[in-house]
Amino acid sequence: GRPGWHIECSAMSKKFLGETIDIHAGGQDLTFPHHENEIAQSEAHNGRAFANYWMHNGYITIDNEKMSKSKGNFFTVRDILADYSGEVIRFFLLSGHYRNPINFSDTLMEQAKNGLARMQNAKANLKHLMEAGSDSGMTAIEEKSAENFRNYKQAFIDAMEDDLNTADAITAVFELITAINTTVKDGASKEFAKKAADILDELTNILGLLQQEEDDSIDSEIQALVEERQEARKNKNFARADEIRDILKAKGIVLKDTPQGVQIIKE
Fold this sequence. Notes:
Helix content is about 60%, strand content about 15%. With about 270 residues, the protein is of the alpha/beta class. The chain has 3 domains: about 1-55; about 60-215, Isoleucyl-tRNA Synthetase, Domain 1; about 220-265. The longest helix is centred in the middle third of the chain and has 27 residues, at about 105-130. The relative contact order is 0.09.
């Protein structure tokens, strides 16, 4: 037939990516006729394989209905960014297998937001421990737990090598976080916190999660209230301590009392 969008893609692919490309992705609706035409044209012309791997993603549905302008349920990522951060959207997309349909709903987005928050809290807790933990080195329990980190890393790798199963990879990360939280006891060491933080960062970096730098700066007014609360607790003035906690919470600051000292968390 007449040259059209199939031949255009073959021509552009060869010019900018070469005769054989490693990964070719696209929606399932493009498998036929578009991708099959690309293969036929490119391989007939070049005499070699067109693509080594094909990744066809599932459709997007909105509350179990296909997205379409006619139904009035069509929107873009830019629209979603008005309510959720880019990392929440990324977490949501990675929580399912890319070949399966993606069902978008407010409920599922809130679940994704909460799931990402659990990862963020784990990273924040480890950062606090690296600053305020024990300098005495790892305990026997911490050493054993750190040795088991490789099991969670391997589970993560196995999932990613199984047709990019990011859903199971995220499960491996959560299992790692559970193991870390179970091991972190009173007097946890800085060394253990560092090892745990390193592997958490390694795995989440692959997924493109926990990339946003947190603003840890605390203004003088907030710091003064934190110190006043600490003094009130020391003097057993718990009513004033609770009052300050409520004041800080209203300002988006949550205080977490740990054996290593108070941890300041920005909501």
